[in-house]
Amino acid sequence: MNAPAEVTEAPVKVAKINFIQGLHQALDEAMAADENVIALGEDIGDAQGGGIFKVTKGLTEKYGTNRIRSTPISEQAIIGAAVGAAIVGLRPVAEIMLMNFVTVAMDQIVNHAAKLRFMSGGQTHVPLVIRTTTGAGVGFGGQHSDMLEAWFAHVPGLKIVMASNPADAKGLLASAIEDDDPVIMIENIKAYGQMGAAPEPGYRVPLGKAAIAREGSDVTIIAYGPAVNDALAVAERLAGDGVSAEVVDLRTIAPFDEATVFASVGKTRRAVVVHEAVKAYGTGAEIASRITEELWDTLKAPVARVGSTYSPVPFSPPLEKAWIYSQDQIAAAVRGTIDRRARG
Amino acid sequence: MAETQSGPDRETLLDIYRRAMLIHRSDERFRALLTQGKLAIVYYPVRGQEVVSAAMMAALNQDDYLVTTYRGVADQLAKGIPSKLLWAEFTGRVTGTCKGKGGPMHITHPETGVMVTTGVVGSGLPIANGLGIASQNRGDGKVTVVCFGDGASNIGAFHEAMNMAQLYKLPVIFLCSNNKFGEHTAFAAHTDSESIVSRAAGYGMRGVQCDGNDAVDMYNTAKAAVDRARAGEGPTLIEAMTFRMLGHLFGADFSYVPKEVAEQGVREDPIPRFRQHLLDLQVSESELDAIVAGIEAEIDEAVAFALESPFPEVDELRIDVVKEEIAA
Q1: CB A277 within 8 A of CB A224
Q2: Which DSSP state fits A282?
Q3: Which residue in B69, B99, B164, B326 has the most chain A C-beta atoms within 10 A of its own C-beta, making it the best mutation to test that interface?
Q4: I want to staple B119 with a disulfide (CB 3.0 to 4.6 A). Which of A146, A242, A257, B105 is the partner?
């Protein structure tokens, strides 16, 4: 099954943008369109440099310091303030500079943002976006590199998105800001400079909808974030060997698009899930399990998972390189599902 | 009782008295029904702290915001949540403020400004800042009060929130009821500062300590903080000195409270003191009795309403998780 028509591709223009520009455009457009949209985070004001990755650069000048709130280093205060503002109708975009620092704000995210709609019986809700960046491969070591999406996917009430290209980054952030529930947007540091097609103003990628990034017939590779690009590279490589791999870009990790995934795997009858987070206890386990439960009678092989090593992210460059999943591991997992003797 | 020249007038004092007695009698009724086995809920008594909430909420408008805690029944009643809805929520009924899905520790009622009730000690303070940011950005003149106890002043969120509120000059009032115990731990055993209010200086914030068992002192302190916040002059930390006359939760051990401390608490009981103050001001016994009689009738009706109301349907599990109804 193809992805829904409205999400297949960004309208391509000549200009290209990177992730930072896509995120900046989404924020700028949202703030221009709705005065309830505000941003909070450490160093995000122009006086502080417009954010360490410059995503918010220039926005203070346009929207003022009441709407671009550069904060103290106080993660609980940032998320708590965003929750409070959200329940009375503001649409805060809170930035947690690096994903590991969400540990400091877990109470506000898990006990408050995620649950206030339910616990209030629907009287209040939390239209909050938490933008956060992370990713191994840039030498930050153990406390600045983790992919923690599985923690949040396990909490009812939270939505989690991760883009694989700049247009999606813009479209997902725009949709997240307009969503009436808390959304966590994970951004990969390594991908920030990646160029891609520049979408038109107003471009949206709906939450909860996956995209078919590449069509194929022998196996489905399910991935999100930069792992999609690795999956596409592997699919290209395997095509030369006569293996036709379909790549599903999940785009929303929770709630994940069962319809698109099941349709693809129902067609190919083999599946491999790929993510940068450690393989053990990861979201890949959930996706693999749901595919197995739904399509057991169809599958030609067990659903395979590819993730990173079950250790803290190391500093030393060769160790760090070895820690992250590799394209070779993806290729081996794909071949493993194909070489697997079909069940009788 | 402190004499003040510009203190609350007779009408305001009677309003505070009505709120305090509603809290007092409701608290008694919760404990009575628990004792009789007619209720089976976790209940955090507020006996001894009635005047703090009554006077603070009397200084607010109905559309001002409140964030409170699991020991929030005093604040919620004083802010104006109808007794029926509150009792129904405390007993898990679909007719409650939150359809029975929040319960005693998670009361929300936006119509009376009660935006969040949290069961996590200290976590309300950062959220109050967000309400304050919304009011500041909109210029709507609303004030946010966040209530907490002395124990909450030692979690990190307290310090982060106080610093941010002062930095942004938010219209937020941090109301600490220093009831002398954080759960089972005495103030001196959890805090070596001489007071909570002394910490305000560390953030450049205005801090005021008051007698939370004295309706006049409590009201004057609250009103001054509200006026400042509404005028854009920023936050205030209020430390209202009071005493929790019962255990941390209903039925819990109270032996950790030294006998002389408990006895002093009884001597300083705000309820008879407040009544005597009103009698001294020539309010008649019959007028005060009529207020209490009205409250008793309100509680009778609320209890009956709650206990006769149905529980929510199981379908509610799929609703309000997110905006979209989730699959079974």
Answers
A1: no
A2: S
A3: B164
A4: B105
Strand partners, A326: none
Listed in order, strand segments (DSSP E) in A101-205 are 129-134, 159-162, 183-188, 195-197
Which residues are within 8 A (CB) of A139 and not within 5 positions of it... i.e. 6 or more apart?
A315, A317, A320
DSSP structural state of residue B118: E
CA A18/CA B17 separation, integer angstroms: 63
Strands (E), A52-210: 68-71, 91-96, 129-134, 159-162, 183-188, 195-197
Residue A220 dihedral angles phi and psi, to the nearest 5°? -110, 125
DSSP string, B160-225: HHHHHHHHHT-SEEEEEEE-SEETTEEHHHH--SS-SGGGGGGGT-EEEEEETT-HHHHHHHHHHH
Nearest to A121 among B133, B168, B320 (CB): B320
* Rounded CA separation B179/B195 (Å): 12
Record the tokens describing residue B315, joined without a space.
């379908």
Q: In the annotation, is A200 catalytic?
A: no
- Torsion sign across C-alpha atoms A50, A54, A55, A61: positive
- φ, ψ dihedrals at B176, nearest 5°: -95, 120
Residue A342 dihedral angles phi and psi, to the nearest 5° = -60, 140
**ipTM of predicted assembly, 2 dp:** 0.96
Instruction: Give the position of tokens 């994940």.
Output: A256
pLDDT tens-digit profile, chain A (344 residues): 344 445 445 555 559 999 999 999 999 999 999 999 999 999 999 999 999 999 999 999 999 999 999 999 999 999 999 999 999 999 999 999 999 999 999 999 999 999 999 999 999 999 999 999 999 999 999 999 999 999 999 999 999 999 999 999 999 999 999 999 999 999 999 999 999 999 999 999 999 999 999 999 999 999 999 999 999 999 999 999 999 999 999 999 999 999 999 999 999 999 999 999 999 999 999 999 999 999 999 999 999 999 999 999 999 999 999 999 999 999 999 999 999 765 44
| CB contacts, 8 Å: B133 with chain A | 38, 66, 69, 81, 84-85, 90
The C-alpha of B262 sits at a distance from chain A's nearest C-alpha, in angstroms, of 34
- In a mutational test of the B interface, the residue from A31, A104, A123, A130 whose CB has the highest number of chain B CBs within 10 Å is A123
User: What residues form DSSP beta bridges with B236?
Assistant: B173, B206
Contact call for B322 and A157, based on CB within 8 A: yes
Q: Which helix (H) or strand (E) holds B19?
A: helix B10-35
Which residues, in sequence order, are CB contacts of B248 under 8 Å at separation 6+? B44, B181, B183, B184
A24 catalytic per annotation: no
- The answer to whether the CB of A332 falls within 8 A of the CB of A234 is no
Residue recorded with tokens 């903080």: B225
In sequence order, the β-bridge partners of residue A278 are A308
